[in-house]
Design brief:
globular; 425 residues; protein transport; 18 helices; 2 domains; Preprotein translocase SecY subunit; 5 strands
Length: 425
């Protein structure tokens, strides 16, 4: 990895891409400290100090609890992208656009941008009204609501632009790198919290060593699962076209263990926030409030069981949307490919679906374990107050691997071009 980075620093165009990416991430971190006008910062700290918003504060790099212009982070864009993927299955016109190549993808991307702004404005209006109800606004009123909503919406739109610029002119996926930067920026604060617990005698060095060993094991497991795939052998029949013989080669169909990525966790987390949100609207002494806080509070057994079940469910749901075994089987049949021992057509689709179902179960169970891991780690090590849990590690490791693959692909392409030029001489 470090060798690839060293080589990348020596190549002019790749070095420019990396520097541009770092510059955009710096702009993101600076914007995370620009407060939204008309907000009582002390009231915000008290209101958003619970565990409910911890993960969203990590994604935004601390901008959520500071309630800066980037408080909503890039989550409206993620939600708009997910909704657009779901609509492509329902609406035939969107499905046709997704298959029209680059032009179709540009139109869908434009729809996602519009959806991002709409969702961000709706979410910002709801947040401003809720803050006014809890007394977190300096001058509650229609003007303050609109000013806060427009500030938050503009911040999200600007982040969306930064992400697209990184993807286009930088290195890596811009949106993923923004989330990555937000999570990594919290590391100094997390380390400071650990040191404070050690100095206060709350935890010992053995607990820290145990925590680091578990964290290292988690990182290794995440890399193994992210890179893990089932390779289904595919054979192409020989075809004679004119005087030439085509086909006959063997290849494989790669099916990833974790095809859904972190999307099922985001879906499940959004649903799990509903009970806590409803509880915050009710009387603290009411039976409904006590029931929701007792059974659906973060860290309880009921919360973790339901959370894990939802993650496995959404893993199957999302994989079913993004991967269609019947289309894959038809494409193999169209180009003369077949799986040895399996008849082309529907039998091939059923076989791929069977293999994919088993992989999806393994991937869903792994995601569920990663999601509930903070509770388990806290119980084992006694290290409390650390939000850098399994989900954050899953995002960080996944983005880091993807970015390094892109850097290595650029290096390979450049070396390949240089090899061709030498042979031409």
């Amino acid at each position: 990895m470090f060798g690839s980075l060293g080589q990348a620093a020596k190549i002019g165009d790749l070095r420019t891409k990396i520097l541009f990416t770092l510059l955009m991430l710096l702009v993101f971190r600076l914007g995370a400290h620009i407060p939204v006008p008309g907000i009582n910062s002390q009231a915000i700290q008290e209101l958003l100090g619970g565990q409910l918003f911890g993960f969203f504060d990590i994604i935004s790099g601390g901008a959520f609890k500071k309630f800066s212009i980037f408080a909503m982070s890039i989550t409206p864009y993620i939600n708009a992208s997910i909704i657009m993927q779901l609509l492509q299955v329902i609406i035939p016109r969107l499905e046709e656009l997704s298959k029209e190549g680059e032009e179709g993808r540009k139109i869908i991307a434009q729809y996602v941008r519009y959806g991002t702004v709409i969702l961000a404005f709706i979410q910002a209006i709801g947040m401003s009204i809720a803050l006014g109800r809890y007394g977190a606004l300096e001058n509650p009123g229609l003007g303050s609501y609109l000013l806060i909503a427009l500030s938050l919406t503009a911040g999200t739109a600007f982040l969306m632009w930064i992400g697209e610029m990184i993807t286009e002119r930088g290195i890596g996926n811009g949106i993923s790198l923004l989330i990555f930067a937000g999570i990594v920026s919290r590391l100094p604060g997390e380390f400071a919290a650990v040191i404070e617990q050690i100095s206060g005698g709350i935890i010992g060095f053995f607990n820290i060593i145990l925590f680091l060993v578990i964290a290292l094991a988690i990182i290794v497991a995440i890399i193994a699962v992210n890179e893990g795939q089932r390779r289904i052998p595919v054979q192409y029949a020989k075809r004679v076209v004119g005087r030439r013989l085509y086909g006959g080669q063997s290849t494989f169909l790669p099916l990833k263990v974790n095809s859904a990525g972190v999307i099922p966790i985001i879906f499940a987390m959004s649903l799990m926030m509903f009970p806590a949100t409803i509880a915050s609207w009710t009387n603290p002494q009411s039976s409904l409030n006590q029931f929701l806080n007792h059974y659906f509070h973060f860290g309880t057994a009921a919360y973790n069981i339901l959370y894990a079940f939802l993650i496995v469910f959404f893993t199957y749901f999302y994989v079913a949307i993004i991967f269609n075994p019947l289309d894959v089987a038809e494409n193999l049949k169209k180009y003369g490919g077949f799986i040895p021992g399996i008849r082309p057509g529907r039998p091939t689709a059923e076989y791929i679906d069977k293999v994919l179902s088993r992989l999806t179960l393994a991937g869903g169970v792994f995601l569920a374990l990663i999601a509930v891991l903070p509770t388990i780690v806290i119980a084992i090590t006694g290290v409390k107050g650390i939000w850098f849990g399994g989900t954050a590690l899953l995002i960080v490791v996944g983005v880091a691997l993807d970015t390094m693959k892109q850097i290595e692909a650029h290096l390979l392409l450049r070396n390949y071009e240089g090899f061709i030029k030498q042979n031409r001489r």
